[in-house]
Amino acid sequence: MNSIAVLGAGKIGESLLAGLLQAGRNADELMFTERHPERAAQLTAEYGIEHVDVATAVRRADVLVVAVKPQDIEPLLDQVAPLLDAATLVVSLCAGLPTKLYERRLAEGTPVVRVMPNTPMVVGEAMSAISAGSHAGDEHLAVVEELLSSVGKVVRVPETQQDAVTALSGSGPAYFFYLVEAMIDAGILLGIPRATAADLIVQAAVGAATMLRDGTEGHPTILREAVTSPAGTTIAGIRELEKHGVRAALIDAIEAARDRSVELGRAHD
């Protein structure tokens, strides 16, 4: 699996290419497609990676990474299907799209691996969940794990869980950004300048996330209780969060995102 083509060089596609280079891949092992000539020229100048058309990418690549928006998948598969060799590994980074969509449209026996990454890929801290299609084996999953480990952490899940993963970790960063935005606004309300409030909250978020990831007592309940003194400030704030149903609202939001992911997949049945 020496030659990798990324179809669609948006933020996720670019981040993957940059991560692969940083992990030691040679630029001549990589290529990408991009509809906008100005952006294509910019990426080639920055990374030294060749910009090609879809037909060239399909003919030359051992691994074809599909990183377009879900609504663009049908016309792309129209171009790919007549040219693709069944030995080529297809890696889908498109939210909501099942492996059976690719298997139905591509040559019989084509190995397909479905991936749900998230936007922290741009800083090398992605959480990517991968699932094998019916023709993909452990060797294909291992290739995808190696590729994606260059931009973060990778976990294998059954494809039946991918819509839930999309809602939880795929959309998850947006929920964190939303909460941080609200907390910064609260700081402004309390008289703290915006820049200072942002510094306070962002560093608190970084520290809290590091404690969750690296601490010996990483369960969030234990960590929260350690901050929550009897009759203190934290429990007063948590009482308000519970009063306003913040926990239930987050659960409902993630469930709604899961349902939307299911809808995206059904649109291509």
Question: What do these coordinates show?
Answer:
It is a single chain. The protein has 269 residues and is α/β, with parallel strands linked by helices. It folds into two domains: 4-162, 3-Layer(aba) Sandwich (Rossmann fold); 172-264, ProC C-terminal domain-like fold. 54% of the residues lie in helices and 13% in strands. The chain is built from twelve helices and eight strands. The protein has helices at 11-22, 37-47, 54-60, 73-80, 99-105, 138-148, 162-170, 172-189, 194-214, 220-227, 233-243, 246-266; strands at residues 4-7, 30-33, 50-51, 63-66, 89-92, 112-116, 126-132, 152-156. It has an eight-stranded mixed β-sheet, with helices on both faces. Helix 7 (162-170) packs across helix 12. The longest helix has 21 residues, at 194-214. The chain starts with a strand and ends with a helix.
The rounded Rg comes to: 21 Å
Which structural class best describes the helix and strand composition? alpha/beta
| The CATH architecture of the largest domain | 3-Layer(aba) Sandwich
Number of domains: 2
Task: Give the percentage of residues in beta strands.
Answer: 5-15%
Shape: elongated
In CATH, the homologous superfamily of the largest domain goes by the name NAD(P)-binding Rossmann-like Domain
Family: Belongs to the pyrroline-5-carboxylate reductase family.
InterPro entries: 6-PGluconate_DH-like_C_sf, NAD(P)-bd_dom_sf, P5C_Rdtase_cat_N, P5CR-like_CS, P5CR_dimer, Pyrroline-COOH_reductase
EC number: 1.5.1.2
Pathway: Amino-acid biosynthesis; L-proline biosynthesis; L-proline from L-glutamate 5-semialdehyde: step 1/1
